[in-house]
Amino acid sequence: MTAHEPFSVWAPSAQDVRLHLDDQIYPMRPIDGGWWSGDMIAEPGMRYGFGLYNGQEWSKPLPDPRSTAQPDGVHGLSEVTDPDFKWSSSWTGRPLSAQVIYELHVGTFTPEGTFEAIIDRLDYLRDLGVTTIELMPIQPFGGDRNWGYDGVSWHAVHHSYGGPEGLKKLVDAAHSAGLAVFLDVVYNHFGPDGNYNGMFGPYTSGGSTDWGEVVNISGPNSDEVRSFILDSVALWLVEYRIDGLRLDAVHAYDDHGAYSLMEQIQYIADDVASRTGVPRSIIAESDLNDPRLITENAAGGFGLAGQWVDDIHHALHTMVTGERHAYYEDYGSVDALAKTLREGFFYTGNFSSFRGRAHGRPLDLVNTPAHRLVTYTTTHDQVGNRASGDRPSMNLTATQQVLKAAIIYSSPYTPMLFMGEEFGAQTPFAFFCSHTDEELNRLTTEGRRREFSRSGWSDDEVPAPSDPATFAASKLDWDFNPEQREILSAYRQLLRLRKELGLSRSDLTRLIVEVGSEDEPWLAMGHPEVMLVANLSDKKLSVPFGGELIYSFSSPAVGESSTELGPWEFALLRR
């Protein structure tokens, strides 16, 4: 609810609406388009809700779908917030090119699990070489523990993290430290706990994603639902001064209009950037391998600044771990890795065994800057969607971990780290939640265990998401052992060299990628002046590229025309 304006709500499904405000009840009157308005003026600090009459009975006071604060949780009254904030930083922003993103979960990044505690780690992140922190979703959810993808109030900030004021303080502190802030937002489904929106109007349209009902962005009465989403986008970019949004699973949007929702979101970002002079980046998560997302609008695309690209992760992960199950089954060769590094996508219209059909479309390598693809050695999904939430660093040697990082950070794509990988964290990041309905918790646990039992996991290997111990175990341990300090030092070196050596060049047509064979799986990648050579096997190999050693995590034998690499070793060479 916007302060200093009359209380209003979109409730086309209700026959009557009344306002519950500070223990008083006030009538509301219908106005155009399914909206209801009252005479009372919203002022900061007021607690309020709406009662809905369905023709037979009145509902209890329900939170406002457009609530900006839920101090008593998703089932409680909404609170009017003050949009004003005393900003101290003179931030000029950062474009996506040459950025290094750090994905983190507010509740598990620090022992305290708050925005304020993140502020104390900003110097650490800046010294690491990070330029942008990306917060996993922070919208209110049931209980006090959740990944964030069960949010229900898309204009609000989870109270226990620090609420609206806490988020603004974090953004201001990050900007003062020279760091941008991205926010992960979920517009493809509502969480199951505390979602009353359907009682107000057709926010969903039937059908199901894998996580909830399909959001109504193309059906009857969808104009207001789109406005609900677009107003949320503007809120984050304007009032909170967020530098960019990561759109969760856009392939789950039921988006059939002539103007894509993503186009409309990008238009808002462009408008805010032009008015403020501060870049705003919209990044999509998509498994469609569809170049339209990051193709310029004038060329028929949606014009987004970037998208996550899982293909590079999958190709690298399978080479180092040997895992080939489920969606990994077509990867696992140096040729697959080479294709993803050269072209961004592995599936460019070729057959996908996992999907049982052809998948994807090629990128225009001439007109697509490489920085529009965001790459990583792992993400919250690639860890948390494993049965026990085990990280790669819990299963790989330090040499293997740093090898993967060297390949990602030596590529021209925009790199992203997942919190803790930079020191080889030994804590899991399991899926966790704390729904206020115990039946929901039981069904969530059963669903997770049923899902993983198909792959041979026993129930006791899949932690119960609602168990507080699952959440507690997922918190980062900041007490590093000697090996973790070595890994951290290597990450700092690699990120520093990425910047100093200009490895983030965006012209994909000039990128050199050469590989060995199945028997001798080596990789060489770079430019005529600087080349990364890597051994993707557990045996010694000779790579036919030499030069001057710039950096390695080990001690390779570098000659003028070849480099001898031990198992999983790499060398960054000046040629």
UniProtKB/TrEMBL annotation:
This is Malto-oligosyltrehalose trehalohydrolase. Its EC number is 3.2.1.141. The keyword Metal-binding does not apply. It catalyses: hydrolysis of (1->4)-alpha-D-glucosidic linkage in 4-alpha-D-[(1->4)-alpha-D-glucanosyl]n trehalose to yield trehalose and (1->4)-alpha-D-glucan. The record marks D381 as: Transition state stabilizer. Residues 61-80 are annotated as: Disordered. Belongs to the glycosyl hydrolase 13 family. It comes from Corynebacterium alimapuense. Substrate binds at residues 246-251, 310-314, 380-385. PANTHER family: 1,4-ALPHA-GLUCAN-BRANCHING ENZYME (PTHR43651), MALTO-OLIGOSYLTREHALOSE TREHALOHYDROLASE (PTHR43651:SF11). Residues 99-448 form the Glycosyl hydrolase family 13 catalytic domain.
